[in-house]
Design goal:
The complex is a heterodimer. Chain A has three domains: 113 residues, Butyryl-Coa Dehydrogenase, subunit A, domain 1 (Orthogonal Bundle); 98 residues, Butyryl-CoA Dehydrogenase, subunit A, domain 2 (Beta Barrel), CATH 2.40.110.10; 145 residues, Butyryl-CoA Dehydrogenase, subunit A, domain 3. In chain A, the strands form three sheets. Chain A has a four-stranded mixed beta sheet with strand order 1-4-5-8. In chain A, strands 2-3-7-6 form a four-stranded antiparallel beta sheet, with no helix packed on it. Chain A is α+β, with helices and mostly antiparallel strands. By secondary structure, chain B is of the alpha+beta class. Chain B has three domains: 88 residues, Butyryl-Coa Dehydrogenase, subunit A, domain 1, CATH 1.10.540; 106 residues, Beta Barrel (Butyryl-CoA Dehydrogenase, subunit A, domain 2), CATH 2.40.110; 141 residues, Butyryl-CoA Dehydrogenase, subunit A, domain 3, CATH 1.20.140.10. Chain B has 13 helices and ten strands. In chain B, α1 runs parallel beside α4. Chain B starts with 6 loop residues before the first helix and ends in a 7-residue tail after the last helix. The chains are: A alpha+beta, B alpha+beta. Chains A and B meet through α7, β10, α8, α9 and α11 of A and α9, α10 and α13 of B. Bound molecules: flavin-adenine dinucleotide.
Amino acid sequence: MDFGFSEEQEQLRRQVRRFADERCPMDRVRELMDSDDAFDKQMWASMAELGWLGLAVPEQAGGLGLNWEDVVVVAEELGRSLLPSPFLAVTTAARAVDLLGSEAQKAELLAPLAEGTSVVTLAFFEDSDVIDPDGVATTATADGDGWLTLSGTKMFVPWGQSADKLLLVAREADGLSVFAVDSAAEGLTVEPLQLIDTTCRAARVSLDSVRVAADSRLGAAGQAWPLLSRALDAGLVALCAEMVGAADGSLQLTTEFAKVRQQFGSPIGRFQGVKHRLAEIYVATESARSLTYYASWAVDHLDDAASSVAMAKEWAAEALDRAGEEGVQLHGAIGYTWECDAHLYYKRGRLCRNLMGSPDYQRERLLAAQGL
Amino acid sequence: MDFSFTEKEEAFRNEVREFLAEHHDSEGVRADGADIESAMDKLPKLLAWNQALYEKGWVGFSWPREFGGSGGGIVEQMILKQECGDARAPILGLSYMGLAWVGPGIIQYGTDAQKKRFIPPILKAEEHWCTGYSEPGSGSDLASLQCRAERDGDDYVINGQKIWTSLAMWAQWMILLVRTDPTASKHLGISCLLVPMDSEGLEVRPIKAMNGETPFAEVFFDNVRVPVENRLGAEGQGWDVTKHALANERSSIAEVTALHHNLDDLKSMAGECRLNGKPAIEDAGIRQRLARMQSTIEAMRLNGLRFLTKQLRGEPIGAETSVNKLLRTEMDVETGRLACDMQGGHGVLTGKSPGAVQGGRWQKNSLSWPTTVIGGGTPNIQRNVIAERLLGLPHDS
Ligand SMILES: Cc1cc2nc3c(=O)[nH]c(=O)nc-3n(C[C@H](O)[C@H](O)[C@H](O)COP(=O)(O)OP(=O)(O)OC[C@H]3O[C@@H](n4cnc5c(N)ncnc54)[C@H](O)[C@@H]3O)c2cc1C
């Protein structure tokens, strides 16, 4: 029985935190969020060099062969610093390739991904923005020998505008399949979405009769869902870790402010209307943390981690939403300014709350998983 | 992370299961829903259960062997509690406060003579304890307490009043906080005494609570004499003894098995009750609340496992346990409310009423939450603890 991180994992955490402090302090976060693609290629290359992009990629495919727990350690620290990068996108895509791909496909896709030379992202969501196979309307129809045609519209494709490879999920006669497709393919259009949180990026990807070779399919035709859903769940856990980190970052920012801002002759952190709210955020964040850490273990070790993941998302979203909102409010008017960092956490909260299923949706999912 | 158990731990789990199969008759005494009166009816069975546990050395499971415990580790202790909880077995020992904090306090601060005198009867459930901390003027601000004890030869002479003393009418002993030095600072003038409840000059006046039961009492002291050797810890050390005791209380509150039972019962009730013309389980609002309850219990379980891991790694745990206490208080109020809401109009019927649902169990529940919500430190005090000790915000007093 050991529900904690190892010394190596704590070292990794310190490494990520130091990296974020040095390479991407808030000034840099702001520069990136105001830039075109928010993508710092040099920083990305350094992250690849440190091995973070291939943390959970098997060693024979060029990764470190570690666990999802390790991915969560990195994601949490990146969330704390709001560091803009496609880390979650490629990590989730790597998981999908690892679960679904043949050895040859893994070798082809995962090595450049881990090296940071190829940005791969998973395009699953459409109008349906939750982890539900029925929401996939994009079709893949046979088009001559060894070829298929993809048509449809993918939404919320994480960092789609920076990706050179897309893992497109489409419906065939027997069910869902995943195709690895060049983002430059003919008929494929990538349009950036304008998100409420500009430290993150996502795109809409339109597929207008995109021709793909049958051997770009990962796994058997129409059989992707069981494994794909596991990859999505793993990606969701990493998102939860980012949220927990961001909630902690927001709590820290607001707590430090409450210690120094003086009104009525005393730091505002002395007033219970302030300190009790911060205490409640602490309770929500610690609980979300416990649920997220457990879910990170569950996606590696349990056949069905969906319930654990749903509970983690429910709590992480609410913890960050609360930390972000109170962060703005407890700063007073300064919290409403562009200059104060409080709104950056708030916006991250508003983004993540609805991505991959709102807290309300997760609660439904939890009951449904029990047949209720 | 590793959520597996060692072979030794699994063997221990089997031993617990065998013990339960032999000694726990599930029809007889169930842990849940036990109010004081029904507990009294079941006393003979409960005493037999305590005796069987005692013979096994499992009453004071983690206490040192020399005092009749098992010297058991915290993982085994968790397994023991889990298995007993899953089987809906009674509490692990009947001398409730004796086990929760009096015993641990005596083991840490007591003299050899005190340990010999007091520990065995706690384990055997021969003596019950009550806790005389709160006073009319001193609740959350416990350290302001005024009940006095003056030294007179080899005795202390106690004068003053305590209140909200749970089980005062049934206990043989009280662990009492008194002011022995009115000139010392608030926290340093306090001492801890072990007082027989049949002392001359000690009077107990029961107080009725909003659920109709009489769980606690006022206790008056009129020149009550106890020998100096009944002092626990040094004179002026009473506050330390108490802090230790309350820390024990907070960790003992983090039990989630009973909450799971409640949740299971609510889920099955949601299939049976009709609300707005359809089963309650089909109501979107009820579904949200049930799921919320489940994820809150899971959060408490996992928070608890993280604290346990810290303990196993030899790291101190302190104020973090207030996290689960706060989650727990929300749950305890919500449980009764949700259950009554699912019953719709029937939610207003108490146990004695025609048409009452499940014997009025949930109505009783929704009138009993103050035990956990107010007793042992109110939510506001827990929030202060978190804000001040964990976030480093300034004290408000
Ligand atoms: C069922 C039950 C059993 C009990 N059993 C025992 C027992 O066996 N032995 C024993 O000694 N005591 C017992 N108690 C007493 C319990 O410990 C106290 O009730 C508790 O500590 C609160 O004290 P109080 O009731 O005086 O409320 P107060 O301290 O007067 O508080 C009243 C309200 O003010 C709030 N408040 C107080 N101070 C602050 C502050 N600084 N900041 C913000 N809010 C504040 C509180 O949160 C509360 O809501 C029991 C209580 C109950 C309900």
